Amino acid sequence: MELFPSTPSYFASLTPARILIVEDQAPIALHLGTLVRQWGYRVAGWAVSGDQALEVIQFYPPDLVISNYKLQGGMNGLELVGRIQSRWATPVLFFSGIDRQDLPASIFWPRRVQFLAKPIQPSQLRLSLHQMLA
Q1: Strands 92-96 and 113-117
Q2: How is residue 72 annotated by DSSP?
Q3: Which end of the chain has the smaller Cβ count within 10 Å, N or C?
Q4: Which pLDDT tens digit goes with each residue over 61-110?
Q5: Torsion over CA: 13, 14, 15, 21 (sign)
């Protein structure tokens, strides 16, 4: 019996999931980061625009992205989700004040995208993170 297993899956299970937070309002981003850390995850980075998020993902791939709909720059959160999903298998937790029924169904299937309506309840966020990272 190995005392210290050397399989990659064993070590991956010991590493906290890395989460990229894409939010243009600093107080909300900081609150999300605080919650994520309290639950044992690691903040992989912060971005205020879609372009900035794509750059972070390219060089420091996260395990999951949390993104708001409204972002700085010319790209909104829906466009960001589409670009992420076209290049990477990274799951995205998307939140907005927009009603889910007003969002195109194509962003949810077969891609790994979940939606939370604002205001986000910490219990909903935690459950979604757990489900998406399982």
Answers
A1: parallel
A2: B
A3: N
A4: 999 999 998 999 999 998 999 899 889 999 999 898 776 666 666 665 55
A5: positive
Q: Which two tokens stand for residue 95?
A: 């939140």
Using DSSP's 3-state secondary structure scheme, residue 18 falls into strand
Q: Is residue 19 a contact partner of residue 42, using CB atoms and an 8 Å limit?
A: yes
The candidate with the shortest Cα–Cα distance to 90, out of 19, 12, 38, is 19
The secondary structure element, H or E, covering residue 35 is helix 26-38
pLDDT averaged over the chain?
86
Report the alpha-carbon distance of residue 131 to residue 134 in Å, rounded. Answer: 5
The continuous run of DSSP H or E covering 79 comes out as: helix 77-87
Q: What gap in Å lies between CA 9 and CA 106, rounded to an integer? A: 32
Rounded Cα distance between 55 and 51, Å, is: 6
CA-atom Rg of the chain in angstroms: 15
Identify the residue whose tokens are 């980061």.
Answer: 33
User: Which of 112, 113, 115, 134 is CA-nearest to residue 125?
Assistant: 115
